[in-house]
Every structure is written in C-alpha cells, then in structure tokens.
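Progress note, sequence design subtask.
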C-alpha cells in the first residue's frame, strides 16, 4: 500500500538511474505544493522506497515531474534545441488511500507512456 514510481529508459533498455523527480500535491487551478525531490537509484526507483507509505497516503490530486531532458543529456544523448521532451508532468488522483498506487514511466527522448501499476 502507498505510492511508488519506477522509470525505465526505453532508448537504452535500462532503469533511468540518476533521473530527478519531483512530487507535488495539487489543488484546483494551477496551485501545487512541492512535497519531495528525489534522484532515482540504479533500479530507477526512489532510493527510500515508497514515495508515501500507507499511513501517509491521502485522497487527493498529485503531480510527478520527471526531468527527462537532463537525464538523457547526462547519458550523452544529443538532443535538438529545443528538445522534444523536457519535463514530463504526470497529473493523477488518489481516490482510495487504502490501495497501492504505482505510477511507472516508460520514456525515451521522443515518447513516454504511463499507467496505474500494481
């Protein structure tokens, strides 16, 4: 139970180790409160485990922001200026705080996909 994320680099076929991610709580409109800033570990996950444990997770809306361009530039990928993807923003809702919400990101410099994982 809780909230977790995992990023896979589909260009290189590996976890996105070293990618910077920010987690925000959001409210109606454009208001967002920064909750956490993390750097993904060698497995493309939060080094501290869950972003929120079961007892910390609350019903509401959130945003994960993944620094895709900086990650690929650090990997030596030549990107056009401006690059196609810079920051990937994933807005999502938590309707049931007693369930596990896993928000994975599959990403390349030109595309991404996500889903509610288990």
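Output:
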């Amino acid at each position: 139970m809780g909230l977790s994320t995992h990023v896979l680099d589909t260009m290189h076929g590996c976890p996105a180790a070293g990618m910077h991610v920010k987690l925000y709580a959001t409210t109606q409109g454009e208001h967002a409160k920064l909750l956490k800033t993390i750097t993904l570990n060698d497995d493309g996950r939060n080094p501290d485990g869950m972003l929120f444990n079961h007892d910390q997770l609350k019903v509401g809306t959130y945003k994960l922001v993944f620094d895709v361009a900086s990650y690929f530039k650090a990997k030596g990928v030549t990107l056009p200026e401006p690059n196609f993807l810079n920051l990937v923003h994933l807005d999502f809702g938590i309707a049931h705080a007693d369930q596990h919400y896993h928000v994975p990101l599959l990403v390349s410099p030109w595309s991404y996909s996500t889903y509610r994982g288990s």
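The first helix runs from residue 68 to 74. Work on this subtask will continue into the next period as scheduled.
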